[in-house]
């Protein structure tokens, strides 16, 4: 397996892998816009993420095939003291899960975050997505808040 930093040429790979996350997460969020990855705003996000002008991203490859990714951005809470990097999204193709790829991507993200002077990494997960929550807890993340919403 190879973990590589992305460049602008990788934006479609990020788009494709993130689209898999959208498809998976639709069961947890009925408001999720499944067209967003292909929207003008989505394409702009992937391009800026891939070339590093927005945040940082890494792709995991097995035998030359992109099988996972992690997307990072800086998070300013304003009211909290630490310097935060947000693990905005990540995904590993279903057939490659539970093989340590996610763990390696998170370790790479932590390593990069430290070089950027971050003191903490932040991530959110849908509360019904027990698989993601369990994974992040195994990686050392702890619950800090709970988001709530009401339909109007």
Please give a structural write-up.
The chain has 152 residues and is an alpha+beta fold. It has a single domain (2-138), classed as Gcn5-related N-acetyltransferase (GNAT) (Aminopeptidase), CATH 3.40.630. The chain has helices spanning 11-25, 40-50, 101-115, 130-138, and strands at residues 2-5, 56-62, 65-75, 84-92, 120-122. Strands 1-2-3-4-5 form a five-stranded mixed β-sheet. The N and C termini lie far apart (47 Å).
Features:
33% helix; alpha+beta; 4 helices; Aminopeptidase; 152 residues; 5-stranded mixed beta sheet; 22% strand
- Radius of gyration over C-alpha positions, nearest whole angstrom: 15 Å
Summarize model confidence as the mean pLDDT. 96
How does the overall form come out from the CA principal axes? globular
Number of helices: 4
CATH topology: Aminopeptidase
| Domain tally | 1
Query: So, the CATH homologous superfamily?
Result: Gcn5-related N-acetyltransferase (GNAT)
By CATH reckoning, the class would read Alpha Beta
- Based on secondary structure, the structural category is alpha+beta
Low confidence ranges:
none
- Please report the distance between the alpha carbons of the first and last residues: 47 Å
Give the amount of beta strand, in percent. Answer: 15-25%
Instruction: Count the beta strands.
Output: 5
CATH architecture: 3-Layer(aba) Sandwich
* Major beta sheet summary: 5 strands, mixed
């Amino acid at each position: 397996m190879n973990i590589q930093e992305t460049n602008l040429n990788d934006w479609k790979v990020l788009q494709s892998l993130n689209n898999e996350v959208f498809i998976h997460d639709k069961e947890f969020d009925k408001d999720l816009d499944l067209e967003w990855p292909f929207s003008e705003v989505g394409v702009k996000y992937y391009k800026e993420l891939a070339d590093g002008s927005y945040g940082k991203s890494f792709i995991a490859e097995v035998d030359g095939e992109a099988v996972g990714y992690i997307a990072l951005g800086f998070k300013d809470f304003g009211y909290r003291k630490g310097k935060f990097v947000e693990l905005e999204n990540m995904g590993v193709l279903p057939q490659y899960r539970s093989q340590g790829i996610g763990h390696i991507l998170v370790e790479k993200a932590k390593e990069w975050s430290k070089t950027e002077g971050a003191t903490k990494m932040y991530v959110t997960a849908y509360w019904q997505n027990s698989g993601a929550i369990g994974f992040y807890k195994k990686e050392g993340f702890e619950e800090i808040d709970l988001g709530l919403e009401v339909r109007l």
